[in-house]
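Moderator note: this is an archived Q&A kept for reference. The question asked for a predicted structure of one protein chain; the sequence and the answer are reproduced below.
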Amino acid sequence: MRPTFLAILCFLAWNPCSKANGNLSPGSVGVHRRFEYKYSFKPPYLAQKDGTVPFWEYGGNAIASSESVRVAPSLRSQKGAIWTKSQTNFDWWDVEIVFRVTGRGRIGADGLAFWYTTEKGDYNGPVFGSSDRWNGLAIMFDSFDNDNKHNNPYISAVLNDGTKLYDHANDGTTQLLSGCLRDFRNKPFPTRARIEYYNNVLTVLIHNGMTNNNDDYELCLRADGVNLPKNGYFGISAATGGLADDHDVFHFLTTSLHAAGQIQEQPKVDNQEKLTQEYKEYQEKLEKQKQEYKKEHPEKEDEDWEEFYESENQRELRQIWQGQSQIADHLRELSRKVDEIIGRQETTLSLVSRNAGQAPPPPATGGVAQQPLPVGAVSRSDVDLLLTNQNLLLSSIREIRQLVGDINVRTDNIQTNQKHAPTAQIQSTGYDVQTLIAEMRDGMNQVKQGITHVGQRLGAPQGAAQVANCPTGNCVGVTLFLSVTVVQLLLVFIYNVFKNRSEAQAKKFY
């Protein structure tokens, strides 16, 4: 009994791994793989200079660049898709998709979808940016929880024969073939999905994007007896709603799968004999032309034709000599610059030693005139004034930088809160926004007056800068202006928080 139990235990532990490994490398079980470039795209030069993707066409809000295809940007109510121009001419295939879904919110919407259908879908359709009632396969990467069951992001496979409507309210749970719960948003590395269809077996493997190991796949779903239509189109679509994410696709690599012996490899053509024969014919033609030239020009019979050509040794020596000449030129230039720097340093040291050797002037007393300073010398009062002005300028720059940083941070917070607000609700804060804009305009005017005042203080002498009057009668200090600005922004932030809480129960509808 004990050996039988161990054998059963080993079989149970080995069998799932063997399935996963078999799907990761179908070639190990005698499957011929051939890369299909007409059904693939990858960087660099993913898109051409005119914006087109070779063998593909895209539309809606999709944007193609040299590195990726942004199927749907992080704006509300955006839809886009990209489809192959031609149908497939193979029955079994393996598709690897490298994508990234990123957003600033804790949750995102709506998601990404992979398509294999008999007809190309729309670019602004209701199902993740594509058409409903499709005929074929759809792999949904759904990031929004429509049924409020807290089971998203979710990856599901849905089959349709062209007559069924997608069940949005339940996230397609009543129609899915199989699926798995995987979080693919905001990962440090791009997420990878490998979709394989071979012998009516559908397998989906997922790389979670937490490591940079491209082969770190795990099994998401496996379904037997899947009958897909022949000669279909591949496509990728995405959509956003009240919430928005960036849906970027970097690679779409398609490989056709064929049984062993199904494809006959073309025999390699040995062109060695053909090339040798062509070389001999060329040599004979060249010798014939030489003889004809000698007959027409007998006075040039003694010329050595080898002098007009450069041998390999001569070419190598010429390249070495040119490299040595460039190195010598650079060394001479460096030597000249070093000599110039040394000369400047010696001049500076001589001036410093000359000023240090002079005796300081005696202190001024009543009735005794102060000795005049030498020409070109800098007095102590000038140095103190320069340092004072520099310190004043630095402090003013720090205050302005801190003020601008606070304004930028609070502006980003306001824009973030406004982005999270639903678009379908009518905004009734027009008067408050206009009032806030007017107050901010007054504050900016005060900032301009303060900067002008600082400039006048910097331009005036040290004594005059301390007793300079305000240019206007209603000057406001920087501290007061910052306090008023912080209070205003705090009120706006509290209002936005209250509004977001009141709308927290609102849901996204298609």
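Archived answer notes: The two ends are 60 Å apart (CA to CA).
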